[in-house]
Design goal:
- This protein is α/β, with parallel strands linked by helices.
- It has a single domain (4-245), classed as TIM Barrel (Alpha-Beta Barrel), CATH 3.20.20.140.
- 38% of the residues lie in helices and 16% in strands.
- It has eight helices and eleven strands.
- It has helices at 36-47, 69-85, 105-110, 135-144, 164-172, 190-201, 215-223, 228-245, and strands at 8-10, 19-20, 53-56, 59-60, 92-95, 98-100, 121-125, 148-152, 176-180, 207-209, 225-227.
- A six-stranded parallel sheet has the order 4-6-7-8-9-10. It has a three-stranded parallel sheet with strand order 2-3-5, sandwiched between helices. It has a two-stranded antiparallel ribbon with strand order 1-11.
- α1 (36-47) links the parallel β2 and β3 (53-56).
- It starts with 7 loop residues before the first strand and ends with a helix.
């Protein structure tokens, strides 16, 4: 028998007016867009389904992407100039960063070489290979500075899978969870998809974002279809993200 909840919806049909708070569209400073032209190609692709507001979040990662507010704002200026030259003045771009909790993070925090979202939210991540040894300490220091830590893509850390209690414990420590939209399909694999839906169902997700690095990911997002039940859980998260950051 046909179930209402088996109906599939194109996710992008529900993203008009959404603000993307985690992406790698700034040119030339991490593993995202390499040039202004690539950045603009991504932005035009987003605009096709009504996403025209972005908080760009390049990596700050010791030994790999040693970015800082200066390098990030320089890249932002290049992008804004490119948008102006291409008559894309209706696009709104701001900059923050995705901070890896590594051995250098606490020094960056103390020296204020961080870049929060909307002044008070700090986007953080861990390695996919193993949890950061100083993660709990770092989170405490973030909150002690009056910032709200947003944990990027919690569904993607395999060492947290099948440990719902651990996710709940992280929430109790003050972490906000940001879901990658592509996790709702099979882009990162069926296990990540399963965890993403579990976190949604258990009301553990606070915000959502694309985390798009390249055109192929954007094309996958355009094709992504989700069931009615998942859309029911996701819609308030999309609204909350836009409300908090627009």
């Amino acid at each position: 028998m046909f179930s209402f909840f088996t109906k599939k919806h194109f996710l992008i049909d529900h993203l008009e007016g959404f603000i993307d708070i985690h992406n790698h569209i700034l040119p030339g400073i991490d593993d995202g867009a390499k040039t202004v032209d690539e950045s603009i190609e991504l932005i035009k692709g987003f605009a096709e389904f009504g996403v025209t507001d972005f908080i760009c979040t390049p990596h700050i990662m010791e030994n790999y992407y040693p970015n800082n507010p200066t390098t990030i704002n320089k890249s932002l200026s290049l992008l804004k100039n490119g948008l102006k030259m291409n008559n894309l003045d209706y696009i709104n771009v701001n900059a923050a960063a995705e901070h890896m909790i590594d051995s250098g993070f606490e020094k960056l925090l103390d020296e204020k070489n961080i870049l929060p979202l909307s002044k008070s939210y700090l986007l953080i991540e861990m390695s996919y290979l193993q949890p950061s040894l100083n993660f709990d300490i770092a989170v405490t220091k973030i909150t002690n500075k009056g910032l709200f830590p947003i944990f990027a893509h919690p569904e993607r850390y395999a060492y947290l899978h099948n440990r719902l209690g651990e996710y709940k414990s992280l929430k109790k420590k003050g972490l906000l969870f940001q879901l990658n939209l592509l996790s709702l399909g099979d882009y990162y694999g069926t296990e990540v998809q399963k965890v993403a839906k579990t976190l949604l169902k258990n009301n553990l997700i606070d915000f959502a974002a694309s985390d798009v690095h390249k055109v192929s990911q954007l094309e996958s997002l355009k094709k992504l279809r989700i069931d009615t039940k998942t859309l029911h859980y996701l819609k308030p998260i999309l609204q909350k993200t836009t409300y908090n950051f627009k």
